[in-house]
Amino acid sequence: MEQEKERLQKVMAACGVASRRECEKYITAGRVAVNGRTVTELGTRVGPRDTIAVDGVPLRRKTAKRTLLLYKPRGVVTTMKDPQGRPTVADLVAKVPERLYPVGRLDYQTEGLLLMTNDGELAQHLTHPSHHVNKTYLVEVRGRVPEEKLDLLRLGVPLEDGLTAPAMVYVQEVDEARHVTRFTITIHEGRNRQVRRMCDFIGFPVKHLKRIQVGSLTLEGMKKGQYRDLTPEELADLEKEMEGHE
Length: 246
Prior knowledge:
Elements: E1 6-7, H1 8-14, H2 20-28, E2 32-34, E3 37-38, E4 45-46, E5 52-54, E6 57-58, E7 67-72, H3 89-92, E8 101-102, E9 111-117, H4 120-127, E10 135-142, H5 147-155, E11 158-159, E12 162-163, E13 168-175, E14 180-187, H6 194-201, E15 206-214, E16 217-218, E17 227-229, H7 232-243
Parallel strand pairs: 9-15
Antiparallel strand pairs: 1-4, 2-3, 2-5, 5-6, 7-9, 7-17, 8-9, 10-14, 10-15, 11-12, 13-14, 15-16
Helix pairs in contact: 1-2
């Protein structure tokens, strides 16, 4: 739901321009522009996406930090814009007033848990190799995967960008009727298309891939395309998980 707009002088004061009363004087004196147009009305209201300039100098808006858990569907690009015109994660959170960015990536054909935030520090920590935040995927491949092949994933496999760290792998189901195997794999690295490349290496290309967990966060109770705010407790747990590997 879009945030309610606030009085211009209140936003200016919150940005540290001056007291609210002084900001009113700036406005009536014609020293303030909103979205490139000079405003002199004290009743002017602005939203989070509006740009404000005082004497031609843009204000740096103090935006509250916000982090969402999004259930990304297949067929959606993990970018803010797509030159090919495909649906993006930005489209899914278009009603959120803050400018949010995805933390890491899920490729076009992969669905599942994706975090989006305007907290640059949190995003950097979550994607930095030194912070071993576990990411768990549900993988479906064709055929029955021999245990020795899964053991390769557990030990680490050589990819073109180096040996992967050991992964946790658990078979969930072998569906003889559909001729598929489902297993979970937990990794902490963030290489591009890593799970798909690991499965290619053992000779069982991914048929379907879904990220079901990041740290202690899951998709419980969520449908594809839905999102929700992380609770303060969930954010605190994420920070603890990162600190535990510093």
